[in-house]
Amino acid sequence: MVGCEGLAGMLLKKSGGGEELGVFYPLRPECQENAPTTRFRLRAGKTLSPRRWHASFSEDGHLDIAKVLRRIQRGGVHPAIKGIVWEFLLGCYDPNSTFEERNQIRQHRREQYNTWKDECKKLVPVIGSGKFITTPIITDDGQSIMDSSTNNAQGGHVNNAVSDKKVIQWMLVLHQIGLDVVRTDQTLVFYESETNQAKLWDVLAVYAWVDSDIGYVQGMNDICSPMVILLENEADAFWCFHRTMQRLRENFRTSATSIGVQAQLSTLSQVIKTVDPTLHQHLEDLGGGEYLFAFRMLMVLFRREFTFVDALYLWELMWAMEYNPNIFSLYEEPSAATDKSSATMSTKELLKQCGKFERKNVETENSGHQIALAVFLAASVIEAKNKRILKEAKGMEGTVFTASLQGIQHARSQDGKILTKPFLDLCKTILPVLDNFGSAMSIVKSDIGGNISRLENKYSSNPSEFTLLYSVVRSEIDAKTAKGSSSCTNGLLWLTRAMDFLVELFRNLLAHPDWSMTQVCTDSYNKTLKKWHNWLASSSFSVALKLAPDRKKFMDVISGKGDLNSDMEKFCTNFSPFLEENHKFLPGIYADNEKEPEMQIGHPTDVKHVAHIGWDGPSVNSPSWMNEFKAAPGLSASNGDANDEIKWVSEDAASRRVSRRASDSSARDLPELPKSSRRHSSTGGAGYSPTKEKSDKPKQSRRSSRNANKELADGKSAGTRIQAKPAPARMHPKNSEKEI
Predict the structure, then answer these.
(1) Which ranges carry the CRIB domain (predicted)?
(2) What is the pLDDT of residues 528-555, one digit of tens each?
(3) Residue 107, number of CB atoms within 10 A of its CB
């Protein structure tokens, strides 16, 4: 087994020289200045070049995979042949097959993909059209959203109600895939093209249809994007992604009590505990013993920790080291398999064709139960930073509320009005508390971070005009954009509601010392955010809250060296007036929005997003030893328009509310129901409590809703996608193997 030190050396060493890689993966001009430095360089004599790749085939097409693996493990793969090489590394083809056999398999797979795609297109015509959707097309109970002008323009309209549960679940995720596609690899010129974005959307949509057990979960877009860029044929990109998901799909599986990647986190903990007990104990003392800080690393294979080029090099290095020649027959249908030699291959021949890491597993007869190489890679990164972690990752001076209490003193002007920047900075000081919750609070942290960024961007556009918090809202009232789902007014509303939840949580910690952390979180949620959630978002929260950390460990971590209970009580007492003032001010803009049961948060996939990767921006007090792994520009909510970056909880709420109300007209086709439940059924049902009375909203408010509907149709809502620039020239290299 490759040790941690060896892996750290491969990952962290800086190699110089070589060809400039920008020509293969060009960055948008506005992103080039702040782009992090790429470590990987093409190295003559070590990188697998096109010439050496062609020389590795026999006349009839058999590939000398052992020679290829050695070359990849020494210097990676040249970008011109990266796509076709990946197909072999991921098990799309058997190296012992011929050119003709692979051509037959390729043709069969393309036909199969087109069949699946046609099935999807019959349900949602936009698929395959070169466009994609970013707003919901169907309600939770299968009713078509009739008046979504954006979807109609994009071809996402669904004519009839849907009753099949599989189809409903699939349709519910399509707009979430679209929202994630818009945010994927934004720094690359390739995705300036709407056609290329649609290609990524098509692949992910078809995969969600084929693998209905897993469906779509955020993070799959990061895995799929390189395949779409490297392989010109969409079907080939799909099958490459499909094979990758064969390795990773359990990372994205969630249940009521666990997340797939948790098993790897547990293994990572054991590895560090064995390799470096002192470091492990230090992390335990800081409350990091569950290694949740490595969650994203393992979930998407370091895609957001490194540049695009470095992540691709890292992937092919891992896949080469984990390669087993039987991988093709393992994934392929027995009737289509062409791996005729593996059954008779001797152990010596098998070992020769295995990667370094897999060779050890075969020798120890542990091939079927090996630990993923990514776990050891994460361990190597942590171990390589041993000294810096021990030195810089220390406990707090005071409690976690110390900074918040100081911020409260500066959040108002001399005449008592709330100041925009100090108030937002005050809200930021709460984020380190959420870091200690791990996955349980990723939803709340994502929402808070996104809404803070949205308001900060508005403030930065004119600091003198927006010095006072409510001046931001009043400017949107004057512009008649306050009710838009991407407005700063809406952001302030949801930021306030999220803070309500946290204040109630802190109060429960003080009032109920005998409660578990799950009880504390659940009760706080029921008293605050739950009334704004439909059943799907509530389900997501319920699953996430079960992942709350041990109470004693949590309290020890946030205590620092001060009086935790005293600081917590002071925070709740002094911060609550800010929230109360917001609640008094905002209903004047939103009319009876505070009582509107249709208001809901979250997207359909959120029930699977309990393993949510979370807000991409940095923590407020992130340690300097992690600076080396900052996300590339475009992946961080702080680097662009926050409206595009964070939409998990609040940004799409208003557009969904408007869309759902439009589906009320379909109630005429439903069986007669009692008055108390008729409206519930017509609007999706799940968003309502069966005990609530029918809305007594005045007519003026309903006219306001129709006005909001008009705004949505005019393209003013968050769901409207920005027009893409003309498609750039193709970046796909021609297939380098002698095949069609």
Answers:
(1) 601-614
(2) 988 877 666 677 777 777 777 788 877 8
(3) 12
The phi, psi pair for 138, rounded to 5°, reads -155, 150
Least confident stretch, 293-307, 581-595, 670-684: 670-684
Element containing residue 219 per DSSP (H, E): none
For the chain, what are the domain ranges?
401-606
**Residue type for position 601:** I
- In three-state secondary structure terms, 63 is strand
Q: What is the distance between the alpha carbons of residues 447 and 649, in angstroms, rounded to a whole number?
A: 6
CA quadruple 309, 315, 321, 327: dihedral sign = negative
Which superfamily does 401-606 belong to?
Glycolipid transfer protein (1.10.3520.10)
**Locate tokens 């709740």: which residue?**
572
What pTM did the predictor assign? Answer: 0.60
Give the count of beta carbons closer than 10 Å to the beta carbon of residue 347: 9
| Model pLDDT for residues 126-172, shown as the tens digit of each residue | 999 999 999 889 888 888 886 544 444 455 566 677 888 899 999 99
Query: pLDDT digits over 202-258, tens only?
Result: 999 999 999 999 999 889 999 999 999 999 999 999 999 999 999 888 888 876 556
What number of H helices and E strands is found in the chain?
35, 0
Measuring CA to CA, how many Å separate 399 from each of 165, 252, 502?
49, 35, 16
User: How many Å apart are CA 199 and CA 131, to the nearest integer?
Assistant: 8
